[in-house]
């Protein structure tokens, strides 16, 4: 699976001929200054919650790509009111079969407010089932016992977890989360963008290694096969 990191919590995956983009926050991310939003194309944009550092570039990319926004009901409705016609609302515990694979919307422990102060519903994460691989994007979240439910309905090939601390779980809690979801290949997100969430990359990788897990930290703009 082709995986491209755009900084913060934004990344894309290519599945079954479709490009799925998550939480686009590029224009206002100084660390992603070399990424051109106008060049990004997506078939689907999945949004975990409504904060500006997860939805800032969603409207532009949706319009230029004719992409479908997938998120909770409140966020999808908010974008539709701005003229984004293609949206698919979900809510916690629900799943839907898209043309690229099945998506299940799962719990996250975090706040959610849209950039204009509108109610953003409850934050969530996504389990995405493809023909060959299944992965979990936790979104912004604290460590939660709900993560223990995920192995009951998904055998994960890899997972995307926030590791920056302060606003989400940090490194130590992310190691426990990896145990809860029974996945040892973790891509880290939501770190370094702001002063509050800067991390020591070497120490973070070593902490995961000591726990028998692999923490992948990508450069912004880097693409790898997972």
Automatic annotation (TrEMBL):
Ranges where the Metallo-beta-lactamase domain occurs: 7-190
GO molecular function (one): hydrolase activity
Keyword terms of this UniProt record: Hydrolase
InterPro entries assigned: Metallo-B-lactamas, RibonucZ/Hydroxyglut_hydro, UPF0173, UPF0173_UPF0282_UlaG_hydrolase
Hydrolase keyword on record: yes
Keyword Hydrolase: yes
Domain of life assignment: Bacteria
Gene3D superfamilies: Ribonuclease Z/Hydroxyacylglutathione hydrolase-like
NCBIfam families the UniProt entry points to: PRK00685.1
PANTHER family for this protein: UPF0173 METAL-DEPENDENT HYDROLASE MJ1163, UPF0173 METAL-DEPENDENT HYDROLASE MJ1163-RELATED
Family: Belongs to the UPF0173 family.
Protein name: UPF0173 metal-dependent hydrolase M23134_04293
Organism name: Microscilla marina ATCC 23134
